[in-house]
Amino acid sequence: QQVTHPAAYSKISFPPIVVKFKADQQASIKEITDDLILKWKNQHGIDLIITARFGHMHSLLVFADDSSTFESLLDPNRWPRTLNEVEIAVNIPRQFPPAYSLIIQQFHRNWSEDEWLIELQQRYVSLYKITRMRVKDGSPLNAVRADFKSIEEVKTLIESGKINIGSMIHPVKLYHLPMRVNKCLKCLRHDHTTKSCSQPRLCPRCAQEHSLEHGCHNNEKCVNCGGDHISGHSACPVVQEKRRALVEQAKIQRSDLLVRAERQQQQYDYQGYDYPALRNGLYFFFVQMH
């Protein structure tokens, strides 16, 4: 069962906020989400645009359909104490979409991320975490990933191309998520999204269709390759093949972008003798006419 409230198209895929009920919840998804939307409107004056479905152990997964809804839901203190008269506990996602992050460059390897986070939060109020970037062998890079709770603050910094750290100005750039293979959280396959899936929900451990209320004690089995691992595991040959395809596709896209950029540059490059200088009188007439 899934209920979708009207939403504007959004390119960002937001992770769910997980709502756990402290007692048995008999209400339908529609009744619960209607109660949440009404309480949010009355308490905060904000119209939520959400999609919801039941998840593991009958928890409720609430998906935001736009950035303003997502950011509004991020503060656990704003949530009502109950939904349909049942007390709730709210779990905020640990990882936000990559659009909420940026890379701060020239961030010295010896600097403490925790110390600078406290100072930066005084200027950038939605900043909540700084993570040192590292290479595969674990060696630290001269850069950190900064995670924000406001996408508008990230956009402003990216447009300016810089961030103030104390009395210094450091360059920033977009953060790009490492290559990840998409997995449907219902049928556990890799060729479509969870929202578009019409198949029954499978157990993420054994890939069988059964109740998840009491967990699963079956052996691990992958629905994609039949191997003895959970579906979507990095060791799965299907996942590895899809990741290789994504890497190759990204290489082709980057090459195409470089070729197009070079062609555009060539269109605007010209030699001085191709366009002889106008005489002074003609030049004045040309400016006046334009």
TrEMBL record:
Name the UniProt record assigns to this protein: Gag-like protein
The organism of origin for this protein: Rotaria magnacalcarata
